[in-house]
């Protein structure tokens, strides 16, 4: 054995340089549940294992500690729908960040409004 599932899951997240919150969001689980998986408190179902393999680009055997060989599935080719979803999620995240900044410093609101308008105009060209 090359370690446990929980060890591999935690190690892969740290190597990727993402927080538990970020990984949990990408893996479509709560942060608390991801923490339980990483600490060996709970065991995931097959759907989660498949998502984790895709996210970390490793084989299920590696993630399950059955091998030290990481080779896993290749990332799916970029398609229009996947790119559109990524763009939408990115836009939502930026919008949330801008809103939070504007709440903390209302003087930034006009700047972000002008930036949003400029980006919208650029997108039309």
Structural class label: mainly alpha
Mean pLDDT: 82
Q: What oligomeric state best describes the polypeptide chains here?
A: single chain
Uncertain runs? none
Strands, count: 0
Radius of gyration: 19 Å
Principal-axes shape call: elongated
Question: What would your notes on this structure say?
Answer:
By secondary structure, this protein is an all-alpha fold. It contains seven helices and no strands. The chain has helices at 5-16, 20-27, 31-38, 46-56, 60-63, 80-104, 109-124. Helix 2 (20-27) crosses helix 3 (31-38). It is elongated and about 55 Å long. The N and C termini lie far apart (55 Å). The relative contact order is 0.09. The model has no long low-confidence stretch (mean pLDDT 82).
Annotate the secondary structure layout.
Elements: H1 5-16, H2 20-27, H3 31-38, H4 46-56, H5 60-63, H6 80-104, H7 109-124
Keywords:
single chain, 125 residues, mainly alpha, 7 helices
Q: How do you describe this structure in short?
A:
The chain is mainly alpha-helical and 125 residues long. It is built from seven helices and no strands.
